[in-house]
Amino acid sequence: MKSIKQPPRWQIGLILVAGIIAISTSAIFIRLAINAAQSSGLEFSLFLSASRLTIASLLLIPAWRNFSLIQLTPGALRYAAGAGICLACHFAAWITSLSFTSITASTALVNTNSIWVALLSWFWYKEKPTKLTALGISIALLGGVLIAMSNQETASLGNNQTLGNFLALLGAFMGSLYLLFGKEAQERGLGIGSYIAVAYSAGALVLLPLPLCFGIDYFSYPQPVYFYILLMAILPQMVGHTSFNWAMRWFSPTLVTLAILCEPVGASFLGYFIFHEVPGILVILGAIVLLGGVAIAMLGTIAVDS
């Protein structure tokens, strides 16, 4: 197999920044689609998730021309498909959470995947967390409790914020499995193009029939909804997710995951200016504490890696 020269670090960093900006728009496009359709809840979230991944999969059709089973070790395709299934569950849970809780709370909670990765790695790879990582996890949990205690969200979000927060956490857990399965698939020989083609397609196949089971018609929504879905597929999915997956080849996964912590800041900033959404004091405080805890946990992991 021909070796690939590592790109300059500034180039990797620039692509990471582009990925952060792109993924920060995800919650915004979801909320815009919800408002345009005047619909929310599980059924509409499944429609958004399925449509987003289906479009991304169609955009990746050219990548299948370079797909080859040569040089793959056993399990590569299974892990890639498993990553796609976990990605589907991640989207179904997290997108639904935005119907019930604020952008700040949802994006902060869903970005606890760094904590879940650390805990899962403890059982999977027998990598025991350091004292600094354990401290960070405890602080992050405190931040999660503060967010859960908040009752000062905007009235338009309804009164089931506990459900929204839980779904965001579930999305974080499934997103963590997606990252770990993806890491395994790439280590077993799948290049980035082949990996995302398999993972995104598997996720789309899982999600595509589910809205139909709830009686959802794929073609009955206002035109702006489909425009926002297209933007979701291009920016957060193709640019955001793919940038992070690509960067993991050259940077430590812990550093890449740490960079993703900027998403709640960007999403909250956009949410304030587009929707005039001002989270409650407890949500803001909880998000700061939670993300600070995740950062501390990651610093503990980075110290071990270095």
Can you tell me about this structure?
The protein contains 14 helices and no strands. Helix 3 (42-59) packs antiparallel against helix 9 (192-207) and helix 4 packs across helix 9 (192-207). It has helices at 9-24, 26-37, 42-59, 76-97, 103-110, 113-124, 131-149, 161-187, 192-207, 210-213, 223-247, 253-259, 262-275, 281-305. It has 306 residues and is an all-alpha fold. The protein has one domain (10-305).
Would you list the SSEs in sequence order as H and E? HHHHHHHHHHHHHH
Largest sheet: none
Total E-strand runs: 0
Structural class from helices and strands? mainly alpha
The coarse silhouette is globular
Distance between the termini: 28 Å
In total, the number of domains comes to: 1
| Low-pLDDT sequence parts | 151-157
Rg to the nearest angstrom? Answer: 19 Å
Helix content: over 70%
Mean pLDDT: 82
What is the strand content?
under 5%
Counted by DSSP, the helix tally is 14
